[in-house]
# Entry
Amino acid sequence: MKLLEVCCGDMNSVHAAIEGGAHRIELCRALEVDGLTPSADMMSEAIGMGIPVQVLIRPREGGFVYDETEVETMLEEVRRARQLGANGVVIGALKPDGSIDEETIRRLVAEAAGMSITFHRAFDVCKNPAEALEQIVSLGCHRLLTSGQAASAEQGIPLIKRLVGQAAGRLIIMPGAGVSPDNARRILSETGAHEIHGSLRRGGCTDSELVRAVINSL
# Structure
């Protein structure tokens, strides 16, 4: 089965994604800075709508190198998402040299035990994707969201295909970035992935017709 996850930065987008038939939501706010952790009220409302919700855990805009205060904030945000009944969390952290911050991810994964855990597009700026994938698998993440270190998932098809092969079913590789009704099927068919991620916005908000069109194309 092919699955569409829709990235939603506000509740209007959540409603539109559900109306269009999305299979799962990645919930965040501030998409203009590539997403930040949503408020507790937003989490609660979205989770109450009966669709699986993955909560983005990102305390600030900018890079993915975090100090201890920011890590503590992320741990608290994971706890809040769990308490509110989220299906899972979306996490990521790097070291200054561009490698995976294993200690931070290990702590976040431990806090999210029992939840579905996605490693987000911090991966797309890491220095060694093959090595990073092995680290992400060993740390216990269930899914990797990636554009294949390219500007869009369509442009990143060659690397995404290699990652799918390397993962060999140990975790899910989920292409995302620039996904549309025109390219979703190609991205999945050429990479061998089975899940895909997009915001599918029109006029600044997720559009139910675009969501439906992607699902119909898969």
In short: Helices lie at 11-20, 40-47, 68-83, 102-111, 129-138, 157-167, 184-191, 208-217. Strands lie at 3-8, 24-27, 53-56, 88-91, 116-119, 143-146, 172-175, 195-198, 201-202, 205-206. The mean pLDDT is 97. The radius of gyration is 16 Å.
